[in-house]
Sequence to fold (496 residues):
Amino acid sequence: MGIFGKKEEPELAEVFDQRRPSNVDAMNQQHRKSISNRGLTGASALTVKQSIFPITLVTILFFLWGFAYGLLDVLNAKFQNSLGITAAKAGGLQGAYFGAYLIGPPTYSGWIVRKFGYRWTFIVGLCIYGVGALMFWPSAVYRSFGGFCGSLFIVGSGLSTLETSANPFIATCGPPRLSEFRLEISQSFQAIGSVMAPLLASRVFFKDTDPTDLSNVQWTYLGIAGFVFLLAVVFYFAPIPEVTDADMALQAEQCSGLTGYVDKPLKKQFKLFFGVVAQFCYVGAQVGVAAQFIKYSVESANISDAAASDRYAIGQGLFAIGRFAAAGLMMVVKPRWVLLVFMTGVMIFIAASMGAKGEGGVAMLSIVLFFESCVFPTIFTLSIRGLGRHTKRGSSWIVAAVSGGALFPSLTGLVADHKGYHIAMCVPLIGFFVAFAFPIYLNTVCAQELDGFRESKIGYHDEDGLAIGDIKHEERRASVVNAEKGISPVEKEVSY
Fold:
């Protein structure tokens, strides 16, 4: 019950019975080893200035696992060539990596982030990732496919733990109206990492090497492990404010006039459940497209694998550009609209890719990657909007939905073996169709709630330079009202 249940989540009554710290207190408590998830820290009203450094530091993690994911396909190909692994058997590599997401976030990762806070979840995730990277050395020495799958599972466990903490941290650290923008920008650097990794791998790590030689794989992952362990030490000493579920409950109540927020048990958070299903299907479809992109290009345009890889690099570049473009749009357009537009683009071009041939088909699938760009982070942030005291547990479920990536590539490959890669795109199309229903639901059922958070001024400065939503701002506002009514501070204290 401690892992799966609500033991670490606060009740509303205990949230409002506590002394409210200020956002300055939240920044001064940054070096505490851990903090109760049921306690207020003052982080519910962090300003943009206060949140810039911790968000920048955590964004490094997004680049890190983007780099790891981008390197995954290259290393998979190296192991396939070296060990003579069939393409069907290689599907187990994706299953090992993404399968870890099904186990970690709902269990130990989710428990760690609620019990010990974001800082320690970052550190634990980095350490697990580092151990997984080290495990590639004996796997390469013994040329063991099982060892390679086990190493990928451990790496996936570490990265899923990092995502369980990093995604909600970025979404909640700062003014709530900028939540989608912050996560979109941070995830943009993940996309850059995904683009850089295969380019470095082909031009630096594995340039002029024997296709069957795994020594460079060993040294590459050894270097990654060293960097990851060093980063864990940095996070131990780094100034990271803790945003608790109690803080999110307070923030949700403060926004209730705009959003219509009413505290509900987790079992009645239907938007969250829909978001989990949409994320599972979307991530599965996205990974299915990525896994088959090169083979699709070879079939469609009758080009070599090398030329198809170049086309895929262009598609990944479009993916990164799309994330920055979506982030910019979110400053002027409601995120629920941006999600609807981008998902509509995905649906149109994935369907077009099934019928188009030649370079036109490759272009259609590349444009799919562009429109995929904003979907994951936007589904994440909109799904946890208004969860209040359930924010961390709900976030862990959304991250667990990434496990869809373990299912769809195998199904897509199975169809491709029998019907070809064009027809196989019907599998991602089905996943995208389920995900497409989510922005329709958001724009028809949840519009008032989502727009209310966007209109909130919490974390912005008032005319006196105080952060709106912070206890000092509310005390100042109360003193002004009392002065206008002629109530002295002493009388106020007695009446209170």
